[in-house]
Amino acid sequence: MTAVEYWRKVVIGSQTSVLDVMKVIDRGALRVALVTDESNRLIGVVTDGDIRRGLLSGINMKDPVAGVMGREPTVARASDAEDRVLALMTSKSIDHMPIVDDDGRLIGLKTLRELASREQRNNWVVLMAGGLGSRMGPLTKTCPKPMLKVGTKPILELILESFAAHGFHKFYVSVNYRKEVIQDYFKDGSDWGVDIHYLEEDDRRGTAGPLALLPEVPEEPFFVMNGDLLTQINYKNILEFHEEHGSLATLCVRKVEQAIPYGVVHTHQHTLLSIEEKPVQEYFINAGIYLLDPKVVDYIPRNTYFDMPDLFHKVISHGHATAAFPFLDYWMDIGRMADLKQASQDYSEVFS
User: Fold this and answer.
1) Sign of dihedral through CA atoms 202, 203, 207, 213?
2) 251 pLDDT exceeds 80?
3) What is the predicted pLDDT for the residue at 118?
4) How far is residue 233's CA from residue 221's CA, in Å, rounded to a whole number?
5) How far is 209 from 176, CA to CA, in rounded Å?
6) Distance (Å, whole) CA 172 – CA 297
7) Are residues 172 and 314 both part of a single domain?
8) Which one of 116, 134, 159 terminates a domain?
9) Partners of 266 in the beta sheet?
10) Are residues 300 and 203 in the same domain?
11) pTM here?
């Protein structure tokens, strides 16, 4: 039986005794009780840890549970994607997520065990975090750009959590400039439930060159992503697209529109054909997210600067299949101060 079927069995009032709540938690099998008011609005959450701390502080077993409950529980809405809920639970180290409506009324419960039971993905993720970030001015004098905060977290942490929420757990992070800031923060990744190793660049190697530092060739297609991007892209969809198209290298692309503020003249030699007033041009741009087959590692030169477009050109020139994966999900390349400001404004809506 799932949390969807069980959660009503663990709903209590704030005046329920601590002893009775202990029985509810034990009987409910979810290890949590949900406290609501007379209008079914969620006002608190109680775990066995809350009760244990209450007992240690001297609370009486007959006292109302209001004295030990957590009064500001983290909640989600029914419309929130499960991947986003899982990422939030992981980041806050909580095992239960009450689901409420717009008026704060309790309508469900999700558990970490239930959400994390999805298949774990063994595809590697390589995050490129060795750049200088010189366009960010004084902000990157002592801090690498991927560690600049958007909302309450560094960009790189938001990227890592988005992959972890999709079941990815093996990460390589390419570091160079101020590498100790990144390594001291993430260490081995155990605080996020993942495994992190570092590719230490002794000089600048571009957006593909650091792949030559991988200690071994991966067994499955692996992701490479720039460490200064924020996105809500669905990585599972990229994997399926990559396989469906038999691609050796897949590039994620975004469509952008550029308005030309002039009348564009079309001619043939000296003859005027037409005048197009302020046309809008559409382009696909490189989104900085890639999925590569292990075979592409053979095309990466060692000890030299090598960018991802160079790698794709090489793969194409050898006659291998490549693909462009277009997506519409949220995406922000934080290359300038204005981008960082915009991402910070987007944070509460997109990532929290």
Assistant:
1) negative
2) yes
3) 61
4) 17
5) 13
6) 15
7) yes
8) 116
9) 274
10) yes
11) 0.68
For 54-96, the pLDDT digits (tens) are 877 888 888 999 999 999 899 999 888 777 788 888 878 788 8
Distances (CA, A) of 249 to 126, 169, 325, 351: 14, 21, 10, 29
Distance CA 161, CA 112 (A): 14
In this prediction, residue 3 carries a pLDDT of 45
Q: Does 13 share its domain with 162? A: no
Residue identified by tokens 């801090």 is: 143
Coil, helix or strand at residue 19: helix
Helix axes 48-56, 18-28, angle to 10 degrees: 150
Nearest residue to 337 via CA among 130, 134, 181 = 134
- Give yes or no: residues 161 and 143 share one domain: yes
Number of structural domains in the chain? 2
The C-alpha atoms of residue 169 and residue 319 are separated, in whole angstroms, by 32
Mean pLDDT of 118-131: 88
Task: Please check whether residues 215 and 334 belong to one and the same domain.
Answer: yes
Res 48 pLDDT > 70: yes
Domain boundary (58, 85, 116) is at 116
Same domain, 130 and 80: no
- Do residues 179 and 59 both lie within one domain? no
**CATH number of the domain where residue 138 is located:** 3.90.550.10
- Domain of residue 61 covers 3-116
From the number of C-beta atoms within 10 Å of its C-beta (0-12, 13-18, 19+), residue 301 rates as: middle
For the chain, list the strands marked E by DSSP.
Answer: 11-13, 32-36, 42-47, 76-77, 96-100, 106-111, 125-128, 149-150, 153-154, 170-175, 195-200, 222-226, 229-231, 249-259, 263-268, 271-277, 280-292, 322-326, 331-333
